[in-house]
Amino acid sequence: MSIIREVKEESRREMLKRISAHSHIRGLGLDEKGEPLPVADGLVGQIEARRAAGIVVRMIKEGRLAGRGILFVGPPGSGKTALAIAIARELGEDTPFVMINGAELYSAEVKKTEILMRAVRRAIGVRFKEIRRVYEGVVKDIKFALTSHPFNPYVKVPRAARITLATKDEEKTLEVDESIAMQLAQHGIRRGDMISIDADTGEVFKLGRVKGIEKAKYFDVESTRVFEEMPKGKIFKEKEIIRTVTLHDLDEAYAAQRRAVFSIIGGLLEEREIDPEIRKNVDELVRKHLSEGKVTLVPGVLFIDDVHMLDIESFSFLSRVLESEFSPIVIMATNRGMTKIRGTDIESPHGIPLDLLDRLLIIPVRPYTPDEMREIIMIRSDEEDVKLSKDAIEALVKIASERSLRYAVQLMHPAKIIADRKGRDEVRAEDVEEAAKLFMDVSLSIEFAKKWESKFLK
Ligand SMILES: Nc1ncnc2c1ncn2[C@@H]1O[C@H](COP(=O)(O)OP(=O)(O)OP(=O)(O)O)[C@@H](O)[C@H]1O
Ligand SMILES: [Mg+2]
């Protein structure tokens, strides 16, 4: 089970791409007792919803929520997505967090239930201990042997490296091959870094910086952990590592193994979906290790934004997931009131079937007051590096109240460009108004489309 890792990282990276509008959010902003501070961690107001979200985080951490669902309900721009992301930030690296949007299910190539299934399995972690053989120590010296890049002779890439590692008790010089040298270069390993190299896979991990190494340069602020003292012990050693992989990682590893076998015997396997048989095998394996106490299950979080986009088939799939043995915590968000469940003529609250709704804890998210909107706009302008004059802030607050907060937030950057063209680095109300004329929000665009309906392509 140790050959595969880090697919979780991919999901985090994917998530990060999507949350740039929420980059100012660093957590739920709660005090030690779980009480929301008025403005903290980039979050403003929304006190009750944040208190509820804090309780959710605690239940997730205590493992009390698996197989249950949470639903954020509120008008557009009220902070539902922001709150879900704040929950993710509170959870820590080891709890899988997967984010999908209801609209993503409709792909031409992969079945909806397969996309959901994948997301579900990526949201369930399996944690286990592993004994690895590693070289670990502080970098005292590092030298690369360079060669020309195969496609671009002007670029030099490392072909090998010679690296001296040290602890309090020992010093060792290693010659490493290209793949390790590349990793050393990519991680930007320099003198004073504490690193660990897996002796079998060659994987390089940067563990932090150690103070006081000769010829090493130190900055006031280091981006990694700083150790005051040299580590003790041997450089080459066995080390217990705790790892979390997801069920999806295991599915993929199994599938890859099988593909390898098939390609040896000449079979051609074009796979877009993972065979249910593979998942069954993985589940069995995990169950076996669970009962032997070799692994623990880490139910993570599957966040489905705009959940009203799901159709009846997907909803019934979700209900089944919530009941199954390995199930993540499902958090959903919607801005719909009474509406038809997709794929049916049945009206239901939030477009969600009643039997599923019945199992959810629902957290209401209320619209913001103008004061809260002002605060959020100011935080965002700081984050986006947009300087707003007083009257520009008020213009944006007005737009946020009349249209939506999201629209107001989105206008900020165009307004900055307009101001910039006029040779100012401060955005004024007139720039905001001009931006609002150039870019419309949804309700205006519908009016516009209606007015010119006959001229649009059909
Ligand atoms: N309480 C808050 N504190 C700070 N920023 C917030 C807060 N609520 C929302 N925001 C920011 O305001 C913008 C709009 O919020 P968000 O996208 O979360 O709304 P939503 O409820 O998910 O809307 P929709 O229903 O349209 O999806 C985002 O940039 C978000 O980060
Ligand atoms: Mg949203």
Which helices and strands occur, and which strands form pairs?
Blueprint: H1 7-18, E1 39-40, E2 43-44, H2 47-61, E3 69-73, H3 80-91, E4 97-101, H4 112-122, E5 124-148, E6 156-166, E7 171-176, H5 178-186, E8 193-198, E9 204-210, E10 226-227, E11 236-246, H6 247-264, H7 276-291, E12 295-299, E13 301-305, H8 312-323, E14 329-334, E15 338-340, E16 347-349, H9 354-357, E17 360-364, H10 370-383, E18 387-388, H11 390-402, H12 405-421, E19 426-427, H13 429-438, H14 442-451
Parallel strand pairs: 3-14, 3-17, 4-13, 9-10, 13-14, 18-19
Antiparallel strand pairs: 1-2, 5-6, 5-8, 5-11, 5-12, 6-7, 8-9, 15-16
Helix pairs in contact: 2-3, 4-8, 6-7, 10-11, 10-12, 11-12, 11-13, 12-13
The structure holds adenosine-5'-triphosphate (ATP) and magnesium ion.
GO molecular function: ATP binding; DNA helicase activity; hydrolase activity
Domain AAA+ ATPase: 66-369
InterPro entries: AAA+_ATPase, P-loop_NTPase, RuvB-like, RuvB-like_C, RuvBL1/2_DNA/RNA_bd_dom, TIP49_P-loop
Can you characterise this structure?
By secondary structure, the protein is an alpha/beta fold. It has three domains: 7-123 and 300-364, Rossmann fold (3-Layer(aba) Sandwich); 129-243, OB fold (Dihydrolipoamide Acetyltransferase, E2P) (Beta Barrel), CATH 2.40.50.360; 370-441, Helicase, Ruva Protein, domain 3, CATH 1.10.8. The chain has 14 helices and 19 strands. The protein has helices spanning 7-18, 47-61, 80-91, 112-122, 178-186, 247-264, 276-291, 312-323, 354-357, 370-383, 390-402, 405-421, 429-438, 442-451, and strands at residues 39-40, 43-44, 69-73, 97-101, 124-148, 156-166, 171-176, 193-198, 204-210, 226-227, 236-246, 295-299, 301-305, 329-334, 338-340, 347-349, 360-364, 387-388, 426-427. It is globular. The chain binds adenosine-5'-triphosphate and magnesium ion.
